[in-house]
Amino acid sequence: MREPQMCNIVCRKILDKKAAKAFKEKINDEYRVNMILDNLPLVVPIRRPDQENAVVYQYGYHVGLRGQYAGSKEEKHFIHNHLTFTVKYHKDPLSGSARIVGFEVKPFSVKHEYEGEWNEKTRLTTCDPHAKRAVTSSESPQEVEEKKEIIFTYDVEFQESDIKWASRWDTYLLMADDQIHWFSIVNSLMIVLFLSGMVAMIMLRTLYRDISKYNQLETQEEAQEETGWKLVHGDVFRPPANSDLLCVYVGTGVQFFGMILVMMIFALLGFLSPSNRGGLMTAMLLLWVFMGLFAGYSSARLYKLFKGTEWKKTTLKTAFMFPATVFAIFFVLNALIWGQKSSGAVPFGTMFALVLLWFGISVPLIFVGSYFGFKKPATEDPVKTNKIPRQIPEQAWYMNPAFSILIGGILPFGAVFIELFFILTSIWLHQFYYIFGFLFIVFVILIITCAEITVVLCYFQLCSEDYLWWWRSYLTSGSSAFYLFLYAAFYFFTKLEITKAVSGVLYFGYMLIISYSFFVLTGTIGFYACFWFTRLIYSSVKID
């Protein structure tokens, strides 16, 4: 610590055919070397051309670079074999001790030379601490070819810095594009205001007018001429087809919603700093497992409302359906990474631990939640359901289920898609994502948008005497996940330069898991909004 090093020789390598080929591939694919010092990742400071003293940090340095010698057309590969590290430290004025607050590097490619035979004590002529000859540029770079020798060297210099240890991460997390986030939030708020206006109009104009009109019906003749949503009061709470599946999906959605909500609050309070590697992922998994309690409870409550009797079967489905799908996709993707002999593969022990978490904690909790949910008396429907289902009249083309479901997904997706761009960039392009404040606002906007668009479309649907709203309400807001996946595909082809098949499969596999999760989350928000809305409007009408 605080002892500068100059031209330290690490090792000397002579490349064989295989090593030369591997290095060239890594240089072509722009691989980077990552290092960590005192939990700080290594960065290469790059000056921004558009601003004077602004510096952007790139994580890790490139293995090498491609270039041509002057006057030659042939492209050669050069390797970065000399690293100049800059370690910034902050001195504590009281104790005199120093703490590391920055870790930067400048990589160079240098063809090192020495006199005589190579041995342990050889001194380089190209980089010599005694002659005060340091490497400052890549003038005669080191080529990557078979049988070439490469000597790896490094310098370390220590710089005193004003940055305090507590705020050493701030330079890493500085977001250069705050305006875009504000723009995205204003854009989303516009959507929300527009929808809220529509919901308020529906609530006030139609409901109060309709309800006061309905409650003044005296004569029998007028009662015969009821129109709109009141007509279907005898069918609106009839349990849907595949009602047990709906319970499973709603339960899973509640589990997801709980996980994301608690995680956002933790992140907002600053518990999940990126300096704690993998903290976010661990927190997500643990929260997911413990939220099983609510999943079981909500799916059992809904199941009891549908007059279901086999609650254990539904509970089992809730415990296995979504996690098993995700786990299967994840397992296949992990097998592919294993096949590539990558260090990014999740080791077998971790996979086993995940299964233990799922079977040992999540499943029992879902059963406990289910037990309590099923024991409570069922919620009463505000109106009685008729014995014989009523016929649904011919619907206009725009009330076609597929059409209205697809339309419903556009607005929730529109509300989040700018923030989504940053999240995708931080996942796939290795940048830190640390604007949980923005993310929380966007999450709240997403909830409101999903709820409102579902309520609006549900109202139109009931007015045209179509009472099959259970599944439709779930799918209306859930369809935003379809747009999310389309956007992910668009992002893949425009922003990422992925050529290898395995990488492409990985990208789409992970995006499929994310879209599926998003579907469950948004669908459940829409479903509960609609559930509350129908109970509200039918309970305020007097029905003889």
TrEMBL record:
Name of the featured protein: Transmembrane 9 superfamily member
Membrane-spanning intervals of the chain: 182-204, 246-272, 278-297, 318-339, 351-374, 405-429, 435-462, 474-493, 505-533
Domain of life: Eukaryota
Keyword Signal set for record: yes
Compartment(s) of residence: Endosome membrane; Golgi apparatus membrane
Family recorded in the similarity comment: Belongs to the nonaspanin (TM9SF) (TC 9.A.2) family.
InterPro entries in the record: EMP70, MFS_trans_sf
Keyword Ribosomal protein tagged: no
Pfam families: EMP70 (PF02990)
Source organism of this protein record: Gossypium barbadense
GO biological process, one term: protein localization to membrane
Membrane topology classification: Multi-pass membrane protein
Alphabetical keyword list: Endosome, Golgi apparatus, Membrane, Signal, Transmembrane, Transmembrane helix
